[in-house]
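Technical note accompanying the year-one report. For the benefit of new consortium partners, we illustrate the data format agreed upon in the data management plan: each record pairs a sequence with a structure-token string. No post-processing was applied to the example shown here.
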Amino acid sequence: MNSAAATQRSEGVWRIAWRRFRSDRVGMISLLVVCGFLLLIAAAASGLVATDWQRERAVPNAPPGFMGPAAAEATSVIEGPKGPPVDLSDIDPLAPRYKEWAERAAKLHTTEQAKALTLPLGADHFGRDVLAKAIKGTQVSVFVGVLAALLATVIGTLLGALAGFFGKRVGDFLEWLYNVFTAIPDILLIFAFAAVLGRGVSTVVLILALTGWTGLYRQVRAEFIKHSSREYVRAAEAIGASSTSRMFRHILPNVSHVILVRMSLLVVGFIKSEVILSYLGLGVPVDQVSWGTMLAEAQSELILGHWWQLATATVFMATFVTAFSLMADAWRDALDPKLRGAE
């Protein structure tokens, strides 16, 4: 009996949360989907897949494979006006050389593969594979969204914990800093940081992290103010636990469900922000691809009826965002102390 009680007491918060998370079928499926995206990102980063996403593999705007090559031929073949042959030598003295130059150019390209008339998910207006672009874009967009959300979460959690736990002058200073950031519209802050830091993936991460921590800060601060006066924290103080131990070993696990929910919202919001920044020309460089650049390119293609790049980027983004949100909700339920106590 005593051994069983000791075993039950030794079970930590995170082990209990993992046990409850595994019982959530939707959460486990979402975790598998997110892990699949992470494996895809790792494969793209290591050069196993989508290494040639910039290569023109097909004719411009080649349709998806299920549409067949006839769609590409219908849009790519343009016949000129009919009529009797015209001797261009009277108009252009270099006309006789054009045929010779064309034959030389054809010899230089004999080793190149013929461009495909169709691809599994189609091609863009340069003939690049949309599937390869979507995989490489997943690497950039998810990296930007997740890393920026993690940085913003660390900043907001740390500052909120300090403000809520210590209060007084520390809390007043952090409240002043919070008011400074929230007094300026987010879009103006983003433009200001972009103008100072320049353009690039790391710049986008820093911009989003430095402008997105304020909402989490307020929530964490309120939770730490509420929990710092509760009995279990006072008991930890009575047995000699340090302030750091009480903040991050006692209070933080009990407010982690709030942080996870906010972080999932930040990931979703930052992916959307990356799309907007790339559309405005302030996001990733032109030599890289992301979901944002794909959607920006698809705007002009959609007018001509070429919808496959827009659909591919949207499906990839919606699948990851939905799976990540459901996974975060399942972790929120698993870490919620009220739900743990109801078991």
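Partners are asked to follow this layout when depositing records. The two ends are 21 Å apart (CA to CA).
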